[in-house]
Amino acid sequence: MILLGLTGSIGMGKSTTTAMFADLGAVVWNADDAVHRLYAPGGAAVGPVGEAFPGVVVDGAVDRTRLAEALGKDETAFRRLEAIVHPLVAQGRAADLEAARSAGSKLAVLDIPLLFETGGDRAVDAVVVVTADPAIQAERVLARLGMTRERFDAILARQMPDAEKRMRADFVIDTGRGLEAARAEVEAIVAAVLDPSWISPRRGAASLSR
After folding, report:
1. DSSP letters along 1-70, please?
2. CB neighbours of 119 closer than 8 A, spacing ≥ 6?
3. How many helices (H) and strands (E) does the chain have?
4. Is the separation of the CB atoms in 164 and 115 below 8 Å?
5. What gap in Å lies between CA 78 and CA 85, rounded to an integer?
6. CA angle, 10 as apex, 7 and 11 as ends, to 5°?
7. Would you give the DSSP letter of residue 198?
8. Cα separation of 151 and 23, whole Å?
9. Is residue 93 part of a domain?
10. What CATH number did the domain enclosing 156 receive?
11. pLDDT digit string, tens, across residues 71-110
């Protein structure tokens, strides 16, 4: 099974792009969805996060607003949270991918916003970066309910700059050129990586990961 890591800064169109991959038969694993499940009632992260950050658990679930307030801009607090959540996310991802392999899936797309920042690019066959013009990105993000320029800037500060992501990518999809153009790029990527002659630029012969 071929593993593609898909990433991009906030507002670049990752969700729309992963849906296009899914339409073409790819299994899509979403890191944000995995965290939501961990924070939901009964989720494996609720207990340890509640112990590390008192007051953030409400009605048996991690309240993300309270958690954000508890974290503030404290890098030490962010690292404590990551030390709790990242291993749980990795465990769930491994189980989901094994299930996909067992089901005979040929292509999986891992939608991970901090793919490069967490070293996830070393565990995939190729990296797809989703991008758009900064003005389009800002327009999309600031239109979200409750989003402010300050919060947007804080999120960007924790993410690798878009230009660097594009430099490190194996494939780049520009969603600012419209849906049809993006869909054509997705179709081209799927056709390329599923070609038996394709060689992973990160892990050698693609047959090693099939």
Report:
1. -EEEEEE--TTS-HHHHHHHHHHTT-EEEEHHHHHHHHHSTT-TTHHHHHHHSTT-EETTEE-HHHHHHH
2. none
3. 9, 9
4. no
5. 10
6. 105
7. -
8. 33
9. yes
10. 3.40.50.300
11. 887 788 988 999 999 999 989 999 999 999 999 999 999 9
pLDDT score at 205 = 42
| Angle at the Cα of 115 from the Cα atoms of 183 and 83, rounded to 5 degrees | 145
How far is the C-alpha of 81 from the C-alpha of 39, rounded, in Å? Answer: 12
DSSP-derived 3-state class of residue 85? helix
The residue behind tokens 């499940």 is 37
Amino acid identity of residue 172, one-letter, is: V
Assigned token pair, 191: 């056709």
Query: Which residue among 83, 104, 125 closes a domain?
Result: 104
> Residue with structure tokens 């607003």?
65
pTM above 0.70?
Answer: yes
Residue for token pair 């991959």: 21
Tokens found for residue 86: 């990242």
Q: In this predicted structure, what is the pLDDT of residue 114?
A: 87
Query: Are 33 and 134 members of one domain?
Result: no
Half-sphere exposure of 24 (CA within 13 A, CB side): 19
- The predicted-structure confidence for 129-142, as pLDDT tens digits, reads as follows 999 999 999 999 99
